[in-house]
Amino acid sequence: QRKKLSKLKKTPAVTQDGIEITLLANIELPGDATPALEAGASGVGLFRSEFLFMERSGEQHQLPSEEEQFDAYRKAVLGMKGRPVTIRTLDVGADKPLEAAEHNILNPALGLRAIRYCLAEPQLFLTQLRAILRASAFGPVKILIPMMAHGFEIEQTLQLIAQAKKELTAEKKEFDAGIPIGAMIEIPAAALALPMFVKKLDFLSIGTNDLIQYTLAIDRADHEVAHLYDDLHPAILQLLQIIVSTAEKAGIPLSICGGMAGDLRLTRLLVGMGFRELSMPAALLPEIKQAILNTRFDTLQPYVKKILRSYDSAVIQETLGHMEALGK
Ligand code: PEP
Ligand code: MG
């Protein structure tokens, strides 16, 4: 089975009726680029840069310098051999603790995490933005901002990116002046107010892990409420539908990089809903590709409609099962 899947490496992920789905990899360290290519990824949809900042000890205890970050981002870019690498800016706090960011947080998931933390520490953020921009001289790079919810967060982020570009230009350091800038949609407010994002940004990526956490008000790290974590809750499906249709109308590229993208049980549903770009851990990519190759988009439509109209979890599960059984 594994051998058969590895033969699929160079086959594009196209449904039987000709709809191409772009499959990307989620990576945590630059060394993950090679396995991503091996799995057949068309690029990196999510480079979780916080792993360069976390679990540092001894001499490395301090935050990574611009040079250290530049080196890591460039390695990932070179490792992907011309395929796009989407680097997410620092997403610390809550389930991703950073010693330097530790302070009295009453409610870490709702506290000063991700973009909120970066905007509160503009020097740290600028250092990272400079390193990412410098890496963009070595291959296609995109910048992805986590946890955006407010218009002013977009404005301030774009201003800091402009400042980093200005500094690099003055220092005669190379970078891609047209580097695409996107946001993660992982807070329900961002999904519902999506028009706020589509005008100012180049692309969007849904972080379903946090979108589910914040929509259902369940701490994703708390095992006592893990049984309430439900990616098929009608509220989640409605939010996904709102995002995909708003993005489509606005003509802005959209991907999913949260856990739902790598869940084989959901592949046909997501494709049927209109998602065209999925980013997942590289190890899951071959089987997701196989599922897409076995799918006809047009046969999915009645099932997708039924699921999106239903507020009954038994009906949703059953319909999903019917969809899975199609053309197997
Ligand atoms: C997400 O929230 O779905 C996501 C991809 O980001 P992370 O899991 O790193 O928070
Ligand atoms: Mg997230």
UniProtKB/TrEMBL annotation:
Give the signal peptide range: none
Q: Which reaction does it catalyse?
A: L-histidyl-[protein] + phosphoenolpyruvate = N(pros)-phospho-L-histidyl-[protein] + pyruvate
Locate the PEP-utilising enzyme C-terminal domain: which residues?
3-295
Q: Quick check: keyword Magnesium in the entry? A: yes
Indicate where this protein resides in the cell. Cytoplasm
User: Which keywords are on file for this protein?
Assistant: Cytoplasm, Kinase, Magnesium, Metal-binding, Phosphotransferase system, Sugar transport, Transferase, Transport
Give the function comment from the record. General (non sugar-specific) component of the phosphoenolpyruvate-dependent sugar phosphotransferase system (sugar PTS). This major carbohydrate active-transport system catalyzes the phosphorylation of incoming sugar substrates concomitantly with their translocation across the cell membrane. Enzyme I transfers the phosphoryl group from phosphoenolpyruvate (PEP) to the phosphoryl carrier protein (HPr).
UniProt similarity note: Belongs to the PEP-utilizing enzyme family.
Q: What is this protein called?
A: Phosphoenolpyruvate-protein phosphotransferase
Q: Which organism is it from?
A: Undibacterium aquatile
User: Gene encoding it?
Assistant: ptsP
Location of this fragment in the whole protein: 258 to 585 of 588
